[in-house]
Amino acid sequence: MRCTKQPITLPFYLSLFAFFSCIPIGQSQTLELEKAAMNAIIQDNGLSQINIKILGNQWYELMKQTGDFPDLPYNEKTEEVTYSDQATVEGISQEQLYRKIIERAAIQYGHVDQVIKYQSLKSGKVIVQGFRKFNINGAPDRVLRVMSNRVKQLICEFTEVYTITSNSYKVDITTISYRITKGRFADRGVYYDELERTYNINELYPVAELEREHWTDSIFMFQRTNKEMENVLKSIRLFLNS
Questions:
Q1: What is the residue-wise DSSP string for 134-172?
Q2: pLDDT in tens, 47-90
Q3: Which of 82, 117, 189, 196 is the most exposed place for a label (fewest CB within 10 A)?
Q4: Residue 164: exposure state from Cβ atoms within 10 A (0-12, 13-18, ≥19)
Q5: CA separation for the pair 189, 224 (Å, rounded)
Q6: Could you give the CA distance from residue 179 to residue 12 in angstroms, rounded to a whole number?
Q7: CB burial readout 43-59, b (16+ within 10 A) else e
Q8: Average pLDDT, the chain
Q9: Is 50 in the same domain as 98?
Q10: Does the pTM of the predicted model rise above 0.70?
Q11: Is 240 helix (H, G, I), strand (E, B) or coil?
């Protein structure tokens, strides 16, 4: 959900100042979305100074518990979280670089015909469907609405978009989603089979718009995603330079 701008009155401005005095301020684009969401919550609900302070304290405690708000690379034009890297590979032709990208996809993700969504040497484009299994060690009590001890598997799925020019490449990792599998479980003596659900990363922010009980696990997912996508970009660079 995106917030639309509304007229700001003086009382609202003062209330907003009181709220933001309670939370850490940063330069993250996604943190800016959180601020905009909080603005809308305060204004639309006509929160009192006391309730604004309570909301600010709740956010402060969240940051204290989880660390600083993760600086997600949010692309304002596409409204997508997008991780990017670009590099020049010495001593290699465009065709060789193109074939190495396809080779890496096969080694990393399996059958080429299943993970290569588009390829064209002429246009210098390769689109790969990637995935990475997330380790949930250190996770909060819940992960994507599932109790941590019930999570059987958590897979992050994403798209790698390569643009190749001569012996240089740019890769964008986007359309990030999470596929979580809940192991077989019992409820009031009735056993249920595994339950699987997929969430797009866009469903997890702005965090302020979620139910309070989901704030912590959303922050955890952002932190884990930042770490794992950084590792993916490093592995791409190492393989293409090998």
A1: PP-TT--SEETTEEGGGEEEEEEEEEEEEEEETTEEEEE
A2: 777 877 777 788 888 878 888 778 899 998 998 999 999 999 99
A3: 189
A4: buried
A5: 35
A6: 40
A7: beeebeeeebbebbeeb
A8: 84
A9: no
A10: yes
A11: helix
* Section 14-41 average pLDDT: 61
Domain coverage including residue 54: 10-66
Are residues 91 and 196 both part of a single domain?
A: yes
List the one residue out of 19, 20, 48, 62 whose CA is nearest residue 210.
62
Q: What tens digit of pLDDT does each residue of 153-197 get?
A: 999 999 999 999 999 999 999 999 999 998 776 667 767 677 889
The three-state secondary structure class of 52 is helix
**CA dist., res. 177 & res. 81, Å (int):** 11
Cα gap 118→125, rounded to integer Å: 7
Are residue 56 and residue 148 in the same domain, yes or no? no
3 state SS of 130: strand
* Under 8 Å between Cβ of 72 and 219: no
Does 80 lie in the same domain as 62? no
Domain shared by 83 and 190, yes or no: yes
Asked if 170 contacts 233 with a C-beta cutoff of 8 angstroms, the reply is no
